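Researcher: Let's do a round of design. I'm pasting the structure tokens now; please hold your answer until I've finished.
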């Protein structure tokens, strides 16, 4: 899941879909360079990826489509990309995507192990130092680079503004729904109350992050949460 980082049982879902002759697509944007993309093992008919998630150029992605899966064209007017998207192909970006994906998997084992250690350090530090906080999503079956938290009695957007002033880039949900003032539909579907889902914070790590940066977040975040809670009419310490 691109918001809370939980790794879904795609192969099992795909098996059930195939048994019932239902075409199955998975949005694997977060998985590129991190998880296996073996389409046979995953039982998928369609799979989409985006290059910028594995340090490729922004603005280009790929779609795996199993032979025989019917697709309507996105754009008409030419026979490009097997009549699925008319228009001149951006060859340099396509090559950049393929190269970035190959490099990501060449380095995946070492890179993901290091990032997972940083993520675990971040999660442990935040949960230890901030009361009424919790990790959203699965505790262990999650992406190596993803940490998503819930903080009671505060608004996620307020956390972001305060972190931004201290040089920390974060989000309060998925980038696909940025700008929305509604709580995350993912968190609501997971059963969290409206007021709890509003206090979400998503921190995504990359291969350039360091222990010092993780420790900096652990140092400044408790003070931000405490300050915002003192301003909240819901907070009663």
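Researcher: That's everything. Go ahead.
Model: Designed sequence:
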């Amino acid at each position: 899941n691109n918001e809370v980082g939980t790794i879904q049982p795609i192969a099992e879902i795909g098996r059930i879909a195939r048994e019932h002759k239902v075409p199955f697509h998975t949005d694997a944007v977060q998985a590129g360079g991190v998880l296996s993309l073996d389409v046979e093992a995953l039982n998928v008919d369609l799979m989409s990826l985006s290059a910028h998630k594995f340090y490729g150029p922004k603005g280009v992605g790929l779609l795996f489509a199993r032979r025989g899966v019917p697709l309507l064209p996105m754009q008409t007017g030419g026979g490009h990309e097997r009549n699925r998207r008319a228009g001149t192909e951006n060859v340099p970006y396509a090559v950049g995507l393929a190269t970035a994906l190959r490099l990501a998997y060449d380095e995946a084992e070492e890179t993901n192990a290091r990032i997972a250690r940083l993520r675990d350090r971040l999660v442990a530090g935040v949960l230890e130092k901030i009361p009424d906080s919790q990790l959203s999503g699965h505790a262990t079956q999650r992406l190596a680079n993803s940490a998503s938290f819930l903080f009671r009695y505060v608004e996620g957007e307020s956390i972001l503004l305060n972190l931004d002033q201290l040089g920390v880039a974060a989000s309060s949900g998925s980038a696909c729904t940025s700008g929305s003032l509604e709580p995350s539909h993912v968190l609501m579907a997971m059963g969290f109350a409206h007021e709890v889902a509003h206090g979400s914070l998503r921190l995504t790590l990359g291969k350039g992050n360091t222990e010092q940066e993780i420790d900096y977040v652990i140092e400044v975040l408790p003070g931000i949460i405490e300050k915002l809670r003192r301003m909240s009419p819901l907070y009663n310490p």
